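Final report, closing paragraph on structural work. Over the funding period we assembled a curated collection of sequence-structure pairs, and we close with a single example.
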Amino acid sequence: MQKKRGVILRKSIVLLILIIFFLFGWYSNHKYTRTFGELKGIGYGEKDSPANRISDDQILVYNSMVILNISGVEWAKYTDTKSMDPLLDDTVNGLEVRPESEEDIVVGDVIVYQPKWTQGLLAHRVISKGQDEQGTYYTVKGDNSKDADPEKVRFNQIQGVLVGVLY
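Its predicted structure, as stored:
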């Protein structure tokens, strides 16, 4: 009986040590992966998804071709600034549509806009939408950027909304 208790005690201690190692490993992985990601500006957690602008019946798939029945679509190429990796870089073909109203833009959309603080167009994700004394504005940020862009984006600056990415 005494010998049996000793075996059970040893097995219990081994099991307890394994549980402690598991919890320590899980905690370390969670803490340091998150810290590394934050240092790299990646950020974790789910991002808002863009609005669904293309319905299933607009996508026609055949053996020899694919047809996207979208009116007002424009083909776009991008500069590889790394701010929207892995979604966009210089090898990607984008499909964009021009929004008709402020309500067409939702948090999660990737918009192409003309910033006031730099030359050329930028493609960044809408992370918030608000109102101020000048009307509706959008806060945008590159998926790999640590901070949001330095200006409130107005609807008249927006050239397009990304609706498709072809690799």
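The two ends are 69 Å apart (CA to CA). DSSP finds one helix and eight strands in the chain. We thank the funder for supporting this effort.
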